[in-house]
């Protein structure tokens, strides 16, 4: 199983994750990304990888992929 997470210590709120993959991420009251769905299936893997690759702070992480 592939797991999606955000390192809150790295996230500064660029918003690319929830702009690129709104079904997987949302924003909190400060504009920082939060994971909406932690367990990712094959259908959402490309969107999750796009968010990982697009995060300038490398705060979006995929584990087990």
- The average pLDDT value, as a whole number, equals 96
Strands side by side in the biggest sheet: 4-1-5
Tally of structural domains: 1
Gyration radius over CA: 10 Å
The protein's oligomeric status is single chain
Per the CATH scheme, the topology name is: Alpha-Beta Plaits
Shape: globular
Briefly note the structural class of the backbone. Answer: alpha+beta
- How far apart are the termini? 8 Å
CATH architectural label: 2-Layer Sandwich
Strand content: 25-35%
Q: What about the largest sheet?
A: 3 strands, antiparallel
CATH structural class: Alpha Beta
Q: Kindly state the number of beta strands.
A: 5
Helix segment count? 2
Overview of the structural elements:
There is one protein chain. With 65 residues, the protein is α+β, with helices and mostly antiparallel strands. It has one domain: Alpha-Beta Plaits (2-Layer Sandwich). It has 2 helices and 5 strands. The strands form 2 sheets. It has a 3-stranded antiparallel β-sheet with strand order 4-1-5, with helices on one face. Strands 2-3 form a two-stranded antiparallel ribbon. Strand 2 and strand 3 form a beta hairpin. The model has no long low-confidence stretch (mean pLDDT 96).
